[in-house]
Write a structure and sequence with these properties.
The chain is mainly alpha-helical. It has helices at 2-15, 17-25, 27-31, 38-46, 49-67.
Length: 69
């Protein structure tokens, strides 16, 4: 179940600005209810906010371009 949880968290963080901000401001609250190992949690929290924001922005631009076709 951890792989599915990781995918869900990453996907949600890419699409949901509020969740992404919460992930860095209060990771305990953001990750409550997700089935993660200690190592998976550490890996998620090792990504810095600027990198995740930049990736989300690029994804959003890509989706906007695809939607305009």
């Amino acid at each position: 179940m951890s792989q599915q949880a990781l995918e869900a968290i990453i996907g949600r963080a890419m699409l949901d600005t509020h969740f992404r901000e919460l992930l860095f401001a209060d990771p305990d609250q953001a990750l409550a209810g997700y089935d993660l190992t200690r190592e998976e949690r550490a890996v998620l929290l090792s990504v810095d906010a600027e990198t995740l924001d930049a990736l989300a922005e690029r994804l959003g631009m890509h989706m906007a371009r695809k939607g305009g076709r």
